[in-house]
Design goal:
InterPro entries: DUF6706. It holds the Pfam family DUF6706. This is DUF6706 family protein. It comes from Albibacterium profundi. The protein has 109 residues and is mainly alpha-helical. The protein has one domain (4-108). The chain has 4 helices and 2 strands. It has a two-stranded antiparallel ribbon with strand order 1-2. The protein is extended, with a radius of gyration of 18 Å. The N and C termini lie far apart (68 Å).
Amino acid sequence: MATVGEFLKIKLSKFDVEVADTELELMFLESDTNLDTEITPEVMIETKKALVKFIPELLLVPEVSEGEFKIKFDRDGILAYYRILCKELGVDDGLSGDTPTVTFIGDRW
């Protein structure tokens, strides 16, 4: 059976995301789960909820490219995965882009 750490690394690597173990451990700071915990249905839900909290922060990281040095990942793919997780877990999609609009009605007076 896979561990939480293995699951997270496999999932994130699909989007070319590399995250240090320390940062992954911090995702579970407030729970009994750690990277060595074996995946069970209950742990899977907790792990996916941790990903939903982590992905918005990940999307704030700027893409860097200078010469052969690059920090870049599949933003569209990770955003799509985030939305799938939100729908699956019944969590509000905080990145939906539904922003309030303001309509000027001053000319109606």
